[in-house]
Specification:
The chain has 350 residues and is of the alpha/beta class. It is built from 13 helices and eleven strands. It is globular and about 55 Å long. Helix 2 (58-73) runs antiparallel to helix 11 (269-304) and helix 7 packs across helix 12 (312-329). The strands form two sheets. It has a six-stranded mixed sheet with strand order 7-6-8-5-9-11, sandwiched between helices. It has helices at residues 2-30, 58-73, 91-100, 110-113, 132-140, 142-149, 193-201, 211-219, 230-235, 261-266, 269-304, 312-329, 333-348; strands at residues 45-50, 78-83, 105-109, 156-166, 168-171, 186-189, 205-208, 225-228, 244-247, 252-260, 306-309.
Amino acid sequence: MKTKFLRVSVIILIFSSMLIFTACGRGGNSTGTQGSSGDGNENVSNIKLSFNLGLDSSQGEASQLFKKRVEELTEGKLTVEIYPNQQLGDMREQIEQVQSGAIQMTLQGTSTLSNFAKALEFLELPFLFPNDEVMWKVLSGEVGQEVFSELEEANMVGLSYFTQGFRQMTNNQGPIHSPEDVKGQKVRTMPSDLLLETWNNWGANATVIDLGELYNALQQGVVDAEDNSIETITKMSIYEVQEYLTISNHNFLPFAFVGNKDWFNSLPTEMQEAVRTAALEAGEFGIEYIRNTEKEAMEKLKVEMKINELTPEEIEVFKNESKSVYEKYSQDPKSKEIIEKLQKAVEDNK
């Protein structure tokens, strides 16, 4: 009788232990926050950050710095996964994933972001910023933050501006000296009504093509020309399918680190501050990175392309031909107010 009782007790004990072990195993996956590392640290959350170029670009280097600083500032309570080279989709798709909360952050151009927050479009008005120093002062100031605030209506939050430098013109038909030289050319732009309007106003036939499809579009003759930063022209080997490069500096190429608003607001205050600090440091890093690497890139392009630079007089012709763009976008009172604030901030920071 004692033996039988002992056997039953042992069986009950083993079964109970199995239940406890199973429950603990399940609990390890359910108690952690989003992106739990699975190593028993229940306070670890993961940030998925996407962008368009490779790890060896300004976007990639800045994103790696952002990751390093976030993890340092939060002592590993926030970790960052970076997804380069449009791994998670094209430019618009990445933004839509942030908007929906499928991922937490992306680094994208204001051209594409302007489809979700109109005011960001005005940062790319032709010849608005004379140089990167003025641009950074304006964007870091009050009006830059006011422009950022419109993202909140699209369930996103602007964390820091970023840049890839000025846009330059490339084509296969010849050097560009005036709007007359782009007349009739099929020009690729980023998805922005303002950029389309600018090129069409100069006499071109502008069309939107995603960055990932640009090289093939140029190679196959879908478009004749495009504009991009020196870095993008080099990194994407645009020089292989375009013969002429015109240094025009016709508008700046602002980018921004943006996050999902619901996710960001759910973070403790100290973690929000850490994310903002890391994004700002990454943005400042981007400015210096472009300054330091453009010289080397230009040396390569001098070998690969035929290069000319717009003279001050030629720039004035382009500026005069751009006045109607400013006038068109100033018809709406709210837009006019933002544009005038930007112009005043530029003048104040020269």
